[in-house]
Design a protein that fits this description.
Layout (H helix, E strand, L loop, with lengths): L3 H23 L13 H4 L9 H16 L3 H10 L5 H6 L2 H4 L9 H14 L4 H7 L4 H4 L9 H4 L8 H16 L4 H17 L5 H18 L3 H18 L14 H13 L2 E4 L2 E4 L2
Antiparallel strand pairs: 1-2
Helix pairs in contact: 3-12, 4-12, 7-14, 11-12, 11-13
C-alpha cells in the first residue's frame, strides 16, 4: 500500500512530466501567428443549410461513405487516416506517394518544415468551427463511427474539417518538395480527405471547404522567408535521400480501387471514354 509521501511524490513527478510535454509542444516554431493569417470566417461561405440542395448532396455523399465501409481495406485506411496526435504515423500515410518515409530522425529538414507548417496553419480552422458549430453526420443520423472518434468529436463543430485541412495542406507541401510526385501525392491527399466522409466525421461540404482553406494557408506560407529557406533545405534533403532510387521519377500512381471506380464512373457521365491507354472526350 502506498504511503502518503509516495503518493505526493508520484503526483509531483506526474505534474512535471505533463509540464515538460506541454513545453515541448509549445516549442514548435510557427512561420506566422494566427492573427497574421487570412481569417477563414471572413473568406468562406457558411455551411449549407439543412434544407438546401447542397445539403442534399451532403446526404448523398454520406450514403456513399457508408457504402465504402463494406470494403474492409478502404475502411481500415479511413481509420488509419483518422490519426491526429502522432505525426510520424500521420506522415506515414503519404510514404508510398511521396517515395520517402518522413520522421524526425531520417528526414530532419522535411520534418521541421512539416511540423512548423502544420503548427502555423492547423489553428486557422478553430474560429470558423466554433462560430458555425455545425452538427456532424454521425451525430445527426445517430450512427456509430468505425474510427472510434465519437467521444472526441461529439459536440465539436464540423465545418470546416480539421483533418482535411491538414491532409490537403500536407499534400500541397509534399508536392512542393517533390513536384515530380505531385500526381501521386494529391491522389493520396484526395483519398485522405474522402476518409473523413467515409467514417462519418464530416459532410462532403466540410471537406470541400477545407481543401480551399488549406490552399489559403499554403499560399500564406509562401510569404515567409523562413518557410522558403526551410523548404529549400527540405527539397535538397529529399533529393539526397532519393538519389539512390532510380525509379523516383517513374513511380506508379497509387489509387485505391474504390476511388478508381468512382473516378471512372464520373468520367463516363462526362462523356469520357478510354481508347487503348488514352482517355478521350466522347462524341
Amino acid at each position: 500500500m502506498m504511503t502518503l509521501k509516495k503518493i505526493l511524490l508520484f503526483v509531483a513527478v506526474l505534474m512535471v512530466a505533463v509540464n515538460v510535454n506541454a513545453q515541448e509542444e509549445e516549442t514548435v516554431p510557427v512561420y506566422f501567428e494566427l492573427d497574421q493569417l487570412p481569417k477563414l470566417i471572413d473568406i468562406m461561405p457558411p455551411p449549407p443549410a439543412f434544407d438546401s440542395p447542397e445539403f442534399a448532396n451532403d446526404v448523398v455523399r454520406y450514403g456513399w461513405g457508408k457504402q465504402q465501409r463494406l470494403d474492409k481495406e478502404r475502411v481500415e485506411l479511413a481509420i488509419a487516416d483518422a490519426e491526429w496526435n502522432d505525426h510520424a504515423k500521420l506522415f506515414l500515410q503519404w510514404k508510398d506517394a511521396f517515395g520517402l518515409e518522413i520522421n524526425a530522425t531520417n528526414t530532419p529538414e522535411i520534418w521541421k518544415l512539416m511540423e512548423s507548417s502544420l503548427a502555423t496553419t492547423d489553428p486557422m480552422r478553430k474560429e470558423t468551427k466554433a462560430f458555425y458549430h455545425r452538427q456532424r453526420p454521425f451525430e445527426r443520423f445517430d450512427d456509430p463511427m468505425p474510427s472510434h472518434e465519437e467521444d472526441d468529436l461529439r459536440g465539436e463543430g464540423s465545418y470546416p474539417s480539421g483533418h482535411s485541412l491538414r491532409g490537403w495542406g500536407i499534400s500541397l507541401l509534399l508536392a512542393q518538395i517533390a513536384p515530380e510526385r505531385a500526381a501521386e501525392i494529391f491522389s493520396r491527399g484526395w483519398d485522405y480527405c474522402n476518409s473523413r466522409v467515409i467514417v462519418g466525421a464530416h459532410w462532403q461540404s466540410d471537406v470541400d471547404a477545407s481543401r480551399t482553406a488549406a490552399s489559403i494557408g499554403f499560399c500564406a506560407l509562401q510569404g515567409s522567408p523562413e518557410f522558403i529557406a526551410q523548404m529549400r533545405k527540405a527539397q535538397q534533403e529529399y533529393k539526397e535521400k532519393t538519389a539512390q532510387n532510380a525509379d523516383v521519377h517513374s513511380a506508379t500512381i497509387v489509387v485505391h480501387p474504390a476511388t478508381r471506380a468512382y473516378q471512372e464512373k464520373t468520367e463516363e457521365t462526362r462523356g469520357i471514354v478510354t481508347e487503348g491507354q488514352q482517355k478521350v472526350a466522347g462524341k
